[in-house]
Design brief:
The structure holds 2 protein chains of 2 kinds. Helix content of chain A is 75%, strand content 0%. Chain A is mainly alpha-helical. Among the domains of chain A are: 80 residues, NADH-ubiquinone/plastoquinone oxidoreductase chain 6, subunit NuoJ (Four Helix Bundle (Hemerythrin (Met), subunit A), Up-down Bundle), CATH 1.20.120.1200; 50 residues, no CATH class. Chain A is extended and about 65 Å long. Chain B has a single domain, classed as Helix Hairpins (Orthogonal Bundle). In chain B, α1 packs antiparallel against α2 and α2 packs antiparallel against α3. The longest helix of chain B has 31 residues. Classes of the chains: A mainly alpha, B mainly alpha. Chains A and B meet through α1, α2, α3, α4 and α5 of A and α1, α2 and α3 of B.
Chain lengths: 189, 100
C-alpha cells in the first residue's frame, strides 16, 4: 500500500467516523458507519489480512448493519432536534476528555515496541483462509468453542428480551395508547 | 511502504472519535454505533501490529471481536426495543430507571 493510498483511505475513514458521530438522522449515521467499516476492510486487505477484510465487509458492513437498520425502521426514529437543551458544560468536559484520550493513545502507541520500524515482507500465505483456519482451530480451539456458547446465549437473550409477554400484551397496548394520547394532547397544548 | 505507526495513529484517532460519540450523543442507537467505531479502531491496531510481527494471532482476535460485536449488537438492540416499548423514548437523558 503506497502512502498516497493510505492517506486517502485514512481521510475517508476519519471523515465518515466523524459523520457517524455528528449526524442528526440515525439513518445517515448508519450510512456513514457503513462507509467507515468498508474503508477499514480495504485497509485490512492492504495489510495482507485478506480473509479478515472480506469478513469485515460481509459480517460487519452487511449483517450487523442490516440489524441496526431494521431496529431504526422498527422504532421509526426521526432526526433529533437541533436545539438540544443544556448540558453545555458536560459537553465541553467530554470534548476535552476525548482530546486527552487521543493524545494519550498517540503517545502510548508511538512508544510501543512494535509500532515503529520498517515492516518485513509478509510470509507466504499470510492472511489466507488456510493459515487463519489453521491458527483458529489449533491454537484457539477452546476460545472458538466458548464463542459458540456466547452466540447461543446471545440468541436466546435477544429473543427473550425483544419478545412481548402474551399475558401482558393488553396492558402494554393500553399503556402505549394512553401514552400516545397524552403525548398528542401535550403536543396540541 | 507506509510506516506501521501511521496505522496505529489512525486507530487511536478513530477510537477517540468513537469515545466522543459515546460521551456526546444522547440517542442510544447512535451511542451503539460509536461503540462499533471504537471496536473497529481496536481491530485495526490488532491487524496492523500482527502484520508487523508476522503472526496470525492478531487476525484471529479480530475474528473473535467481530463475533462478540455481533452478539453485543443483537442483545443491545433487543434491550433498546424493550426500552422503547416501555418508555416510548431512546433518549439516554430520559432513561432514569436505574436512578434511586
Amino acid at each position: 500500500m503506497t502512502p498516497g493510498v493510505f492517506m486517502f483511505l485514512a481521510a475517508l475513514a476519519v471523515i465518515s467516523a466523524l459523520g457517524t458521530v455528528a449526524q442528526r438522522n440515525p439513518v445517515h449515521c448508519l450510512l456513514a458507519l457503513v462507509a467507515t467499516l468498508l474503508t477499514l476492510a480495504v485497509i485490512f486487505i492492504g495489510l495482507d489480512a485478506v480473509t479478515v477484510g472480506f469478513l469485515q465487509a460481509i459480517v460487519y458492513a452487511g449483517a450487523i448493519m442490516v440489524l441496526f437498520l431494521f431496529v431504526i425502521w422498527l422504532l421509526n426514529l426521526q432526526a433529533e432536534l437541533r436545539s438540544a437543551p443544556g448540558y453545555l458544560a458536560l459537553k465541553a468536559i467530554s470534548a476535552v476528555l476525548c482530546a486527552a484520550l487521543a493524545a494519550e493513545l498517540f503517545l502510548l502507541l508511538r512508544h510501543a515496541p512494535t509500532a515503529g520500524g520498517a515492516q518485513a515482507a509478509a510470509p507466504p500465505g499470510y492472511g489466507s483462509l488456510d493459515l487463519l483456519a489453521t491458527t483458529l482451530f489449533a491454537d484457539y480451539l477452546v476460545a472458538f468453542e466458548i464463542t459458540s456458547v456466547l452466540l447461543l446465549a446471545a440468541i436466546v437473550g435477544a429473543v427473550a428480551l425483544a419478545r412481548r409477554e402474551p399475558s401482558r400484551r393488553d396492558v402494554t397496548a393500553q399503556a402505549m395508547a394512553a401514552g400516545a394520547t397524552t403525548a398528542s394532547s401535550e403536543r396540541g397544548a | 511502504m507506509v510506516p506501521m505507526s501511521y496505522f496505529v495513529g489512525l486507530s487511536a484517532l478513530l477510537f477517540a472519535i468513537g469515545a466522543a460519540g459515546v460521551l456526546l450523543r444522547r440517542n442510544v442507537i447512535v451511542i451503539f454505533m460509536s461503540i462499533e467505531v471504537m471496536l473497529n479502531a481496536v481491530n485495526l491496531a490488532f491487524v496492523a501490529l500482527g502484520r508487523r510481527l508476522g503472526s496470525m494471532d492478531g487476525q484471529v482476535i479480530v475474528f473473535f471481536v467481530m463475533t462478540v460485536a455481533a452478539a453485543e449488537a443483537a442483545v443491545g438492540l433487543a434491550i433498546i426495543i424493550s426500552i422503547f416499548r416501555n418508555r416510548e423514548t431512546i433518549n439516554a437523558d430520559e432513561l432514569n430507571l436505574m436512578r434511586w
